[in-house]
Please model this.
Amino acid sequence: MVLITGYVKMNGTEINIKKTGFLKEYFGTIFTSLSSLLTGMKLTGYYFIHPNKIITEQYPDNRATLKMAERFRGEVTLPHNENNEHRCNGCQSCEIACPNGSIKIVTKHEISEDGKKKKRIDTWVYHLEMCTFCNLCIEACPSKAIVMGKKFEHSVYDKSQLVKILNKPGSKVMKEAEE
Amino acid sequence: MQMTRKPSDITTDAKSGEVLHHEGEFIINMGPQHPATHGVLHLKIWLEGETIKKIEPHLGYIHRGIEKMCERLSYRQFIFSTSRMDYLSAHINNQACALAVEKALGLEVPPRAKAIRIILAELTRIASHELWWACSGLDLGGVTPFFYAFREREAINDIMEETCGARLTQNFIVPGGVMSDLHHNFQKRVKRVLTQIKDNLHEYDEILTGNIIFQNRLKEVGYLSREDAISYGCTGPAARGSGLSCDIRKLYPYDGYEKLDFDEIIFNEGDCWARYRVRMAEILQSVHIIEQLIDSIPDGEFQAKTKNVIKLPKGQFYQRVETARGELGVFIVSDGAATPYRCKFRSPNFSNLSAIPQMAQGAKIGDLVAIMATVDLVIPDIDR
Amino acid sequence: MEKLHLLFVFSFSWLASHLNMWLRTGIGNSFLLLVTEMLIAGISLLAFLVILCFFLGYMERKVAAFMEIRLGPNRVGPKGSLQIVADTVKLLFKEGLTPDGSDKFLFNLAPFVVVVTSMLAIAPLAFARDFQLWDVNIGIFYVTSISSMAVIGILMAGWSSSNKYSLIGAMRSGAQIVSYELSIGLSLISIVILSGSLRLSDIIQSQANGWWIFKGHIPVLISFIIFIIASTAEINRAPFDLTEAEQELTGGFHTEYAGMKFAMFLLSEYINLFIVSAIAATIFLGGWMPFHIGNLTGFNHAMDYIPSSLWFFGKTFFIIFIIMWFRWTFPRLRIDQLLNLEWKYLLPISMGNTLLVSAMAVFGWYL
Ligand code: SF4
Ligand code: SF4
Model:
């Protein structure tokens, strides 16, 4: 099936092209090549008249129905419950686990009612612009305080908007997550 | 017709006396921005008419210092950065790093984790080969195949997203196993994808493989002899198309490949067409491997117990795996600390690229595109 | 019923003759009359071509999309139909760069040469019954000679860009167009032999009792196939788009062009596509002649009710669709394979075919 034999030299070595009667080969080639081309056209033609096979996802239009996979890694989030409480106790394991320094935990000391000094988070700084969504911080967190969010539309006009503070103002750590 | 050259026809560098070019030749720079180089590869090409006289690859446009970066990342962290080398075999790269660490620690990986790793690795290989097929069609001027292959690749990516959480740079492997257990849909969806691939492969043959134009573009083009493949250090499908047996999964099995039944695909012609057929057959082999495992994933732990801070013993450790493009070697020198003293990756694409000037000798510009398509370069893996 | 009948027989010839009459009453001077008529014809032709190109661009993108199992443009206008308009507006607002090292005069002239040559070839086409701009007695000869001039524009563009990719593209197109001219000419000649005239209207008339593709049996079928293949190569469309060859030459001869000058090349590509399809439809498929089957009078009568312009455009778009179908299915050939295909296959076959057709014409082996 060599329609167009091209140049037969290949690094100096001649390649023998099998000789089977010239006319037979000549017309045989034409028919095999035409049929191979028609096979391809049949396939594209099939898809042309079968618009139901179209696989396009109409992305911005299907926002409402778009469901991300359960484990999809969109951004690191620190979930708060209805009492504005989160589970982070400021142990900084996530900060150490992060390979590219996307997490900065600023801690402060709080005096609890029984007079003991306790380490609490002041700000939970998350650099979304540096994060590679590797999931290592989530794995490292001993109190399961952080989870991966599903949001993926992160584009903004200024990179500074991607530096996020995850703990909400006035939030406290949950009782059961303390130490 | 051979042109006879007078000395005045030769332009030399004033300082070094190096021959820059001959009269009648011209030099074009293919890349760093060029539609066929799939990234920022820069090939300096000496042409005489349309015939290629000489090629000089220029590298370094996407060098990110991943090896150096690894020296200050812990053994848990450095795995993620290898996803950014050969991003189409991200999972297999991660596996290589984890295997190196496990080898150094003498850690036994639970059988379930091993099976999961292999299934995901083979899915990655299929996805990578699908992308390669799509792009080689595109490189040779056929746009339509691209979308047919992406249909299947998308299904695989969806599985990856569901189980690993990411589509391309999964980072699902940790030293001692995998990050989390399989998603409960996993088996069902993998089986569906496998049937989809097997059902649709005939379309690939109809639109490209059997197409006479496509065959003629690949046949007898880009010849690489077995000896050259060895001396350039080519691996993967690029070398197996030249009759070189180099499948690490067969030669140095890891993670339980030794227990599986699959063939190493070898073609002896050494041209682009042979390399093309190697990859097409490998898709089927990968499907076959997954089919053996998917119903018999062993129960048990998905991760071995490891210390919080992994410290490797003093010494040098080397682990090789078969990525979709060839042999990836991970070499770690440890001085006993929590980070590697030196980390070196032997990437398949770098060696494969070095053979391209040899393959393209005397070819046309159109052939160079075909050669690059069938060698399947991923540029970030060359530079790291 | 009467009204319906009028609707069906409405034709461009009626429009043209009425316009002529109306102008004749207004303008006495015969020279002025000629100039006015030419102006009207020219402007309406330009408008027609622009609209045609919009439509072809849209059609191409939709055809490509459907073959590639995707939706294609669907944002601008209903079903994305105004996408091309939006693209044109974008191109209009782009800066028309002229590279520093280029031959500025030739560089800026080339797009116009390309467009003008492709527009010239439209003159002898018959769009409908008795509706033809210029029924010249050497119609086919005129079309082939004009279309071979397109290569000059491409060579100009490639050479003057002072870009090596453009140069290679232009040289490729020189080799390509010159060689494929031959088989185009030979395949057209087979019909000229059969119909005995170079005049397009005569050729159409000769198909009143059946299109040549049916009357001419296998030899004409072979001519038709060769014509389609060779003209695809002649207008540089995939799988013969070596002059552009995006993956090899980044853009070929128009690598350096931007903005409206680039749009000119695009325009000429679509005009060329239309012209070769129209020629194929005229020569092989009977132009505006309706489809008739032997003595089935009822059926033939029903076919006659379809306006002749619809017949012409229907056939033309059918061939355009086939050429688009090629483009979105096949990979590209290499330059030496392209030339081999012409010199080793198409040319010898069409030569032999011409002999066959001559024999047919001599012995009257057609209807
Ligand atoms: S996902 Fe990875 S990169 Fe992002 S913050 Fe967590 S550890 Fe850092
Ligand atoms: S998020 Fe988790 S790991 Fe990070 S500081 Fe809070 S508790 Fe520690």
